[in-house]
TrEMBL record:
UniProt GO BP: fructose 1,6-bisphosphate metabolic process; fructose 6-phosphate metabolic process; fructose metabolic process; gluconeogenesis; sucrose biosynthetic process
Catalytic reaction equation(s): beta-D-fructose 1,6-bisphosphate + H2O = beta-D-fructose 6-phosphate + phosphate
Record protein name field: fructose-bisphosphatase
Organism name: Porphyra umbilicalis
Assembly and oligomerization: Homotetramer.
Recorded metabolic or biological pathway in which this protein acts: Carbohydrate biosynthesis
Amino acid sequence: APTGLEGLDSVTLTRFVLHGQKSHAEAKGDLTMLLAAVQLACKVTETCVRRAGIANLYGLAGSGNVQGEDQKKLDIIANDTFKVNIQSSGKCCVMVSEEEDLAILCDRTYNTGKYAIAFDPLDGSSNIDANVSIGSIFAIYKINDPAAITTPQEAAKEILQPGREMVCAGYAMYGSATNLVISMGEGVHGFTLDPSLGEFVLTDPNMRIPSRGKIYSVNEGNARMWDPATTEYIKSLKYPEDPDKKAYALRYIGSMVADIHRTLLYGGVFIYPADAKSPDGKLRLLYEAAPMAFLIHHAGGKSTTGKEDILDVIPTGIHQRVPVYMGSPEDVADFEAVSTKLANSV
Ligand code: P6P
């Protein structure tokens, strides 16, 4: 579908969102303001990531987070940047961050926020010091009655909505270029940061995932701990029964934003299964699996936990983990067929 911005040069993200706002009579510009804050947080984070080596920002901060992970200096910088910019937008009432134990109730003095946002401020941070692509992921939900929320526990309850209810999802990837991919439920659109402008400029309108790919993306180092359906499915990709079928290639960066971005562009399937070590998988639903599933869905792809569509999972906790299979619809359907066949054979 045309974006209505065809032919315009330098369609910035702000201009694109404003244009989208005009097509929704009820929109008052709150989401536009919130996205302007998120965009700024991504730009500040990008600057810090690019300068990390020079400004001695690599390495551990000497603290841990709720995930029990060693926090990198950049994790903390990115988290603080997202919190302060989102709060200053005045449009958000609840924030959930991978780096924060509890949900945060935004300052109510000037905050008329009707939105809640879950974010992973710097995903893939174990790769930072090796200069591997990393990114920020966010998911925005609407809150019914912000004034009724008075505690972090009540705030958490308000954001525990299935991914299908999401208003907007996106990720920024700090790679060889810095790009931002976003969906508000009407197509998926890719922007690239133009350093000469300091603006994200529309470069990939209406992104669509190929119906089938030739790449699978999983940490083969965990193969000994996989469930039978995952083992069987991946075996079928590596040793196709049909002699005319080519085996799939393996590409695994170990940074979800980079692995999903490649899957969105080239097709194929990204998998982080449950395994003996992590019975619910490793990836977090609220700020990793659900926003990525929302983007993949609106680009024509599919996602599943192995039991249900990731967008249908009703979260029970803000740091809940889920198994993840997502990507090209035909590839994910092939996995579901293997899973169903095995389930029916027991
Ligand atoms: P593993 C990064 O730490 C992360 O959260 C995701 O970005 C990435 O997909 C996954 O973990 C990699 O996990 O166990 O394969 O190193």
